[in-house]
Specification:
The chain is of the alpha/beta class. 36% of the residues lie in helices and 20% in strands. It has a 6-stranded mixed sheet, sandwiched between helices. It is globular and about 55 Å long.
């Protein structure tokens, strides 16, 4: 079996990816960046190591020592870590100091290039799990009324635009007014803020950036997203068909329907 590495952030996606990679004939070595409950990962991976994302030199040396030539980076890692007193090693400090701006794509591209300089290739996140991408159309059984459909299209358009600017992937709208734009705080907090500001009836739009590099940051919808939509009494969710992961889609759709939330996957041309 060939060996492959997995740089794992938060969420269930690393487990799903590891399982799929094993089914495709790989030994999976996981490098956990977030110290959360790990029994699930330990149950599926051939090896699990905890490692500090800020210790770039140690991270690279560990991956090389394990004989890893290909690596996937998957799961949520919050950029706020860079601004919360985390001790960066000299290699990470040099990497960040060489950037004009600390936008997500700039940081990730520099990180990928640093790995490549050591012979470690970062592969497409969708490798082995493309079945998580939804096709275009309504995913829930309910049909949006004219107002909801209008907000979905508007939110989709605005989300694409903030993605183009590399600000975030998510916006929340209501009656064609933007309630919240995702920035460094992430999708979950943006949704909650929108609920506080706009009350019930909002629409959440989460899309891929027009220039999305599929080696990192493919948008993902899961149980937490739906829970937050329910919490703010949202009316709908619009995502991008073929470019957004949905985790455990069947149960997620059922939960959305139970709370009257309509989910639609749109193609870029229709936004």
């Amino acid at each position: 079996m060939s060996r492959i590495g997995l740089l794992a952030g938060k969420g269930r996606l690393p487990f799903i990816w590891a399982k799929a990679a094993q089914q495709n004939g790989h030994e999976v070595y996981i490098y956990r960046l977030i110290k959360e409950e790990k029994r699930e990962l330990e149950g599926i991976a051939d090896q699990v190591r905890d490692i500090n994302v800020a210790a770039l030199d140690e991270l690279i040396n560990t991956i090389k020592a394990d004989g890893i030539k290909e690596l996937v980076m998957i799961g949520k890692v919050e950029k706020t870590l860079l601004f919360q007193g985390v001790q960066l090693d000299q290699r990470m400090e040099r990497l960040l100091a060489g950037l004009d701006v600390l936008q997500d794509d700039n940081i990730m591209l520099a990180f990928v290039a640093e790995l490549a300089s050591e012979g470690i290739k970062v592969i497409d996140q969708a490798t082995y799990i493309r079945e998580l991408f939804p096709e275009a159309g309504l995913l829930t059984s309910g049909k949006p009324d004219e107002q909801l459909l209008s907000d979905m299209k508007y939110g989709f358009q605005i989300a694409r635009e903030i993605g183009r600017l590399d600000i975030g992937q998510t916006v929340v709208v209501k009656n064609k007014a933007v309630l919240a734009v995702e920035a460094i705080e992430g999708t979950d907090l943006a949704i909650k803020r929108a609920g506080q500001l706009g009350g019930p009836g909002a629409v959440v739009a989460k899309v891929s950036k027009p220039q999305q590099d599929w080696r990192f940051d493919i948008p993902t919808i899961g149980e937490t997203t739906i829970r937050n939509l329910i919490e703010i009494n949202a009316r709908g969710l619009v995502i991008e068909a073929g470019k957004t992961f949905i985790i455990e889609q069947e149960s997620l759709i059922k939960e959305a329907e139970r709370h009257g939330i309509i989910i639609m996957a749109m193609e870029t041309a229709s936004g």
